[in-house]
Specification:
single chain; mainly alpha; about 120 residues; 5 helices
Length: about 120
């Protein structure tokens, strides 16, 4: 169980950060019938950009997913009784790989004012 303490703590920290920032930080107001929304949380009152808020929330979603994968990798390496690479290197590579994919998506987010105008015309 001692090998799982850090991995479970990491998963708990990512999940708590996602919950706190999603429920209080951004608090999205979804505009139906399209997949659009307006952030109404604390980050908006602090004048943090919508693009950064979106990037941060997606990064936290991916962080929770990667931490769950890390739990499965840890369990597998404990059952096999040997490791292919050092666990910290595995976690680092997983998180860096997820962040690199998100950075590419970050530069492809459309202008929000134009997107809102299109949504309200529907």
């Amino acid at each position: 169980m001692s090998s799982m303490k850090w991995v479970i703590f990491q998963c708990c920290a990512w999940s708590a950060a996602l919950d706190i920032t999603f429920s209080g930080g951004t608090t999205p107001f979804v505009l139906f019938p399209t997949l659009a929304g307006v952030p109404l949380g604390v980050f908006s009152s602090l004048k943090i950009g919508v693009i950064f808020q979106t990037f941060f929330e997606i990064l936290l979603f991916v962080g929770v997913g990667v931490s769950n994968i890390c739990i499965m990798e840890n369990r597998y390496s404990v059952m096999r009784d040997r490791q292919f690479m050092h666990p910290i290197l595995i976690y680092f590579l997983n998180f860096v790989g997820a962040a690199v994919v998100l950075i590419v998506m970050y530069f492809d987010i459309p202008e929000q004012n134009e997107a809102r105008r299109i949504v309200f015309e529907l």
